[in-house]
Amino acid sequence: MTTSATTPPAAPAAPAGRAGSPTRPPQSRGRRPLTDEERKQRFEARLAATRNEHSTRLALAIAKRLTDDGAVLCPKCGKGAPRGKFKIHADGGWKHFSSTGCSGDAVAVLQAAGISTGDAVRVLNGLPTRTPIEVPEDAAALAQAFVGVKSVVDTNVFNAVLHYGRNTGGVELAKEFYGTWHISPEAVQESGAVVIADPKQFEQGLIAKFGVERLIACGLFTTNSKGEPFCLVSKRFPVVEPHRHPVTGDVLYMQFRASHEQYERYLAHKRGEREYKGSEKIISLRGAPTEAQIGTGLHVLGARNPDGTYVVPDEAEVTIVEGFKDTLAGRTAGLHTYGLPGTGVRPPAEVCKLLSRFTTVKVAMDGDEAGNNARDELVEYLREHQVRAEPMAMPKDLDLTDVLVGWHASGHWTGTPCGCPTCTKFRTDHPDRFRNS
Ligand SMILES: [Zn+2]
Ligand SMILES: [Zn+2]
């Protein structure tokens, strides 16, 4: 076996008309220290190579600013930017549409994460860095999720998830899970939520039935940077929260809620004791089209009696809340709730049409600043779509689930203050509410 030695490339001939310039030394194959000018040129070239959308997405993933939702934690102000409020341009420049008006580029994202400019440029060019930089396993998948690569709405697969859950005791497990917050079993049953007890077996069953390709195409599975498929439903995120079609009840979209154990990681992150990565509270189907994210509880509001009349009459008051858990908490409290998956999500036009038959639609979002702003914007949007929407004041820093727990913790609901761990913790966290009780 002979390895033919590669012929060293001939030194380029000096271009005609430049006879006066000094002759360059022939290109050496060994390492010759670069001149300052060459170093500068190389840096400029590498910097220029970071000026595109892909680099900025990758930078956001490396800086751990991308959530599993494909949403962004702004690298500058640190706030969560819901879908549509964080834009990346073709030249890699990004802008956070907020009152602070944050903006930057790919390198700025990494600089904000404490990475030197040189290393930022190197890692984005796929080169070794001076200081080790951890590139997340699923950086490519996260970056892609933000790109907005759309997955398909595969109701057969999605319905099969609930079907599997129902056949493996998942409804009972879900009742137990949400019962932690005093959510009623009836509300859980009605919603279709299930807990997947054995995610490994579930994953294998799905692959056998549908094949990996189809599971990835609908966003239920994704691939890590090595190209290996993994299922979003896992031991960490075993709780399936479906968005269902108002008439057929088919599952159009799903989110997966953290187990109690994973929720502790989320709380640790909120206390500043953990970095963001791996601290999610909820993850969502990858790349699902916005039209599919219709919200929760619609199959109840859209249900009809055998004679064609609606089960929930037009005169009923509908309450719009944020998130699946609050949809259930509201149902437990006897409200007709419709849940949006996040503060930045707008109900599609067809959902507005469905809501427009109700005489009163109250918009109750979390009682924090983000919630208040989102609420006012949503009210405006709904009114433009002929929904009789009104803002509803929520207690400061409490969501509907907190209110429900608060009723139990105070004894308002049953007459005796509840001694369960959730209520005990609630009393500790909100001492001002229990001073005189
Ligand atoms: Zn910002
Ligand atoms: Zn309790």
Describe this structure as you would to a colleague:
- The protein is of the alpha+beta class.
- The protein is 37% helix and 12% strand.
- The chain has 17 helices and 15 strands.
- It has helices spanning 36-48, 53-62, 106-112, 117-124, 139-147, 155-167, 170-179, 185-191, 199-210, 212-217, 260-270, 298-301, 324-332, 349-355, 369-384, 400-410, 421-429, and strands at 72-73, 80-81, 86-88, 94-96, 103-104, 194-195, 221-223, 229-231, 239-244, 251-257, 282-284, 317-322, 336-340, 360-363, 389-391.
- Strands 6-9-10-11 form a four-stranded antiparallel beta sheet. Strands 13-12-14-15 form a four-stranded parallel beta sheet, with helices on both faces.
- A hairpin with a 6-residue loop joins strand 1 and strand 2 (80-81).
- The chain is globular.
- The site of one zinc ion (ZN) has 8 residues, from loops.
- One zinc ion (ZN) binds next to loops.
Quick description:
The chain is an alpha+beta fold and 437 residues long. It has helices at 36-48, 53-62, 106-112, 117-124, 139-147, 155-167, 170-179, 185-191, 199-210, 212-217, 260-270, 298-301, 324-332, 349-355, 369-384, 400-410, 421-429, and strands at 72-73, 80-81, 86-88, 94-96, 103-104, 194-195, 221-223, 229-231, 239-244, 251-257, 282-284, 317-322, 336-340, 360-363, 389-391.
